[in-house]
Every structure is written in structure tokens, then in C-alpha cells.
Amino acid sequence: MITRARLVVAVGTAVLVAHVALHAQQASLTSEVSRLVELLELRSDSVVADVGAGSGEVAVEMARQLGPASRVYGTDVN
């Protein structure tokens, strides 16, 4: 029999695991975008187009790293 306490522990554990996985993905995304910024020699006033942006995570992170003087556009067919 599943008690309320066991259910709370199971849900809490699942949330913790998801949070750790999300943090690892975010750290990886941040380092990948940093590498792109370096390779493309982007500056704080760059204009960037992310074509095929999917969910837009890369475009959002790039905009965050480049700052408010930059312009980052993302587009996708979906």
C-alpha cells in the first residue's frame, strides 16, 4: 500500500532529480553558447540570427550573455 508519506517522498525525489538534470543541461548550454560567442567573435553590440532555433534556448542564452545592446533573433518553422 502506498501511503501519503511515501508518495510525497517519491514525488520530492523525482523533482530533485529533474532539478539536478535541468541544472546540468543549463550549465552545458551556457558553456556551449560561451564557446559559440568566442568562435564567432561576437561582441556586446552584435546582431545574431538563430535560424532553426527550435525551443529558442540557445537564442535566449546568447542574448543573456551578449547583453542589452545586442540583438538576437530566433526563428523556426514550428
What's a concise summary of this model?
This protein has helices at 4-39, 57-66; strands spanning 47-51, 71-75. With 78 residues, it is α+β, with helices and mostly antiparallel strands.
Supply database-style keywords.
2 strands, alpha+beta, 2 helices, 78 residues, two-stranded parallel sheet
Outline the fold blueprint.
Blueprint: H1 4-39, E1 47-51, H2 57-66, E2 71-75
Parallel strand pairs: 1-2
Word description of this protein:
- The chain is an alpha+beta fold and 78 residues long.
- Helices cover 59% and strands 13% of the residues.
- The protein has helices at residues 4-39, 57-66, and strands at residues 47-51, 71-75.
- A two-stranded parallel ribbon has the order 1-2.
- Helix 1 (4-39) packs across helix 2.
- The longest helix has 36 residues, at 4-39.
Q: Residue-averaged pLDDT, rounded?
A: 76
Please report which band the strand proportion falls in: under 5%, 5-15%, 15-25%, 25-35%, 35-45% or over 45%: 5-15%
User: Between the first and last Cα atoms, what is the distance in angstroms?
Assistant: 44 Å
Over the alpha carbons, how many angstroms does the gyration radius reach?
A: 18 Å
Specify the oligomeric state: single chain
Helix content: 55-70%
The tally of strands reads 2
Quickly give the structural class.
alpha+beta
